Amino acid sequence: MKDISLHILDIANNSVSAGATLIEIEIYEQPLAGILTIKIKDNGRGMKPEILQKVTDPFYTTRTNRKVGMGIPLLKQNAEQTGGSLKIQSEERVGAELTAVFNTNHIDCPPLGNIAEIMTILITGNPKIDFLYTHKIENQEFSLDSRQIKEILEDVPINSPPMVRYIREMLTENIEEINQSNSNQ
Amino acid sequence: MTKVKSLADLRKMKEELQNKVHLREKGDNAESLVQIRVGMGTSGIASGAKEIFNFFVEELEKRNIEAVVTQTGDMGYNFAEPTVEVTLPGKDPIVFGNVTTQKADKIIECYIKNGELVEGILPENYDKIDNK
């Protein structure tokens, strides 16, 4: 994966496959401390403890068409090679939560990437699933709840092209704004 | 600096959109539109599925083709990522493999617009003569 946002897209797709109806994604940037924390939490079917133990093993997968599952192992490797960590918690029938921590000062730390684009793809590419996106940079915060968007849109489809464009611009501008307010401090 | 976009503006925009375009009746949506699903499993993403997804969203709008672009997981064709499944109204889905933006352009121009098949269709998804 070229950047961290692509990992987020990948991991959120696990939540989609787990039948989640709500996926919460939180990005917490702490440039002063050199820490980036990514949290992805869903209300999908969750995992049994014995499966939970195996998810970071690339040769374990629940899929039946092939014998490897690289999504979580790749993210774990990327996080750990910066001196960060990856943690997954889950309870069957309740959901799962993944936390990845990156040391952003480490030379191997990938860039965050275009997270606005990724969130747009997730929100508009999975119109039946709701996303709660929170992005914090030090003490600046922006959040977007796709349920609120859908409430406003009523019968206008969230994946109609003008909406897709609007959601992307809204995310891009707001993330830029918290970035700017943070650097102005 | 101009004010950043917010949910309040979204409401305004939705109303404009509703006035401008006549939205289709509920329920008559999905089947009557071109449906495009971009495979976004781990290998799809790593091979550039994101660029293909964005390309379809942008180009279909530019070319005035009403379509729904959604994402899906692994389709099982990891040797041919990125993969894209296209369903024309009333037709069986077809999966295209090794999709680049050039090929995506061809898919739109030849297959979606005119129903002509384009190179790079993955098997199993169309009926061979001996299956008929």
Largest sheet of chain B: 4 strands, mixed
**Radius of gyration based on Cα positions of chain B:** 17 Å
Strand order of the largest sheet of chain A: 3-4-2-1-5-6
CATH homologous group name of chain A: Histidine kinase-like ATPase, C-terminal domain
Termini gap of chain A: 33 Å
Q: What structural category do the secondary elements of chain A indicate?
A: alpha+beta
Query: Which series of helices and strands of chain A comes N to C?
Result: HEEHHEEHEEHH
Strand content of chain B: 5-15%
| Order of strands, widest sheet of chain B | 2-1-3-4
CATH architecture of chain B: 3-Layer(aba) Sandwich
What is the CATH first-level class name of chain B?
Alpha Beta
Overall SS class of chain B: alpha+beta
Give the CATH class of chain A.
Alpha Beta
Mean pLDDT of chain A: 91
> Level of helix content of chain B?
25-40%
Number of E strands of chain A: 6
Tell me about this structure.
The complex is a heterodimer of chains A (185) and B (132). With 185 residues, chain A is of the alpha+beta class. In chain A, 39% of the residues lie in helices and 25% in strands. Chain A has a single domain, classed as Heat Shock Protein 90. Chain A is built from 6 helices and 6 strands; from the N terminus they run αββααββαββαα. Chain A has a 6-stranded mixed sheet with strand order 3-4-2-1-5-6. In chain A, α4 packs antiparallel against α6 (161-184). Chain A starts with a helix and ends with a helix. The mean pLDDT of chain A is 91. In chain B, strands 2-1-3-4 form a 4-stranded mixed sheet, covered by helices on one side. Chain B starts with 6 loop residues before the first helix and ends in an 18-residue tail after the last helix. In chain B, a hairpin with a 6-residue loop joins β3 (84-87) and β4 (94-96). With 132 residues, chain B is of the alpha+beta class. Chain B has one domain: Glutaredoxin (3-Layer(aba) Sandwich). Chain B is globular, with a radius of gyration of 17 Å. Chain A binds chain B through residues 1, 6, 9-10, 13, 16-17, 63, 65-66, 69-71, 74, 117-118, 121-122, 124-127, 148-149, 152-157, 159-166, 169-170, 173-174, 176-177, and chain B through 4-7, 9-11, 13-14, 17-18, 23, 26, 29, 38, 40-43, 45-46, 50, 53-54, 57, 60-61, 68-71, 73-74, 76, 78.
